[in-house]
Write a structure and sequence with these properties.
Layout lengths: L1 H8 L10 E6 L3 E7 L5 H5 L4 H13 L6 E7 L1
Parallel strand pairs: 2-3
Antiparallel strand pairs: 1-2
Length: about 80
């Protein structure tokens, strides 16, 4: 899943080397914290959050076979 997020996000940003993903796993959920360069935040979020929503939709669909809830958080 981490590779999928990187594959989606890296072409969108100006600083692909700054893309980092931290994974936290609990009993019933997996949280992915996506960190990008401060200058790329607007590109990852998009107008009215459309790009972020599209990324989340793809990630959630890909992870639907897992029996845990997936959460994608975007931060600096």
């Amino acid at each position: 899943m981490k590779e999928l997020i990187e594959t989606i996000v890296k072409p969108l940003v100006d600083f692909p080397d700054d893309v980092a993903i931290q994974v936290t796993e609990d009993d019933d959920r997996i949280t992915y914290l996506l960190s990008v360069n401060k200058n790329d935040m607007g590109k990852v979020i998009g107008k009215q959050g459309r790009v972020a929503k599209a990324i989340r939709t793809i990630v959630y669909a890909a992870g639907s076979q897992q029996h845990k809830k997936l959460v994608l958080e975007i931060g600096e």
